[in-house]
Structures are given as structure tokens and as C-alpha cells.
Amino acid sequence: NFIGGIQFGAFSFPCCTASGESSGKRALNNNTFDEQGFVKNIYPNPTTGRVNFEMEVSARAQFRITDISGRVVVEREVNKETTSMEFDLNGQSRGVYIYQIITNEGVASGKIILE
Predict the structure, then answer these.
(1) Across all residues in the chain, what is the average pLDDT?
(2) Which one of 31, 68, 70, 108 is most buried, counting C-beta atoms within 10 A?
């Protein structure tokens, strides 16, 4: 059973099982490339607070992290010179979070597990 179906842009997929594991339905595995190639690495993932993203975007983009209910916990504008970012999720509840990178080229989505 799923926590919920999540729809972002062109992607629509059930994110994860109640234990936080990938359902295997278009959700991204930890530390892998996203479908658009924007995110090159996410570490550590799972995390206990701080999480780093290495990325490559060719234009301005909107970067967002939401909890599983859709509440935005981080939102930043990213320019094409941005190659890495660090986010501090300390103070957030443990669980699965979804990141999105939104550009004119498409939407990349993946998961972060906060332990």
C-alpha cells in the first residue's frame, strides 16, 4: 500500500511504501540520476539532517522539497551556474521527502529519506 500518489508536472507515480522504500514505479532510487539528468548525486541519502545535491541545469530553475503531504519545506531559485546545494532538514519530521527541479525543459523529481 502507498502513502499516496504524487503528481508533479509530466510525472505521475506512487512514491513509496509506508516503510519509505521505492515502489519501483518511476520513483528514483537513492543516489541515482533523475530522468532529466539535472541531479547528478544526492548525498547522504538517507540523511539525518543535511543533504547535498550535485546538479547540472542549463537554465534558471525552481528547486523545491516537499514532505509527503505536499507541504513545501524548501524552495529556491537555481541558476545555470549552480552546481551544488546543501539543505538542512534538521527540525523536520522523519520520513520521505520529494525534491523537484522545474525548468522549461521539464520537471525532475526524486525522493530524500530523512531518518
Answers:
(1) 75
(2) 108
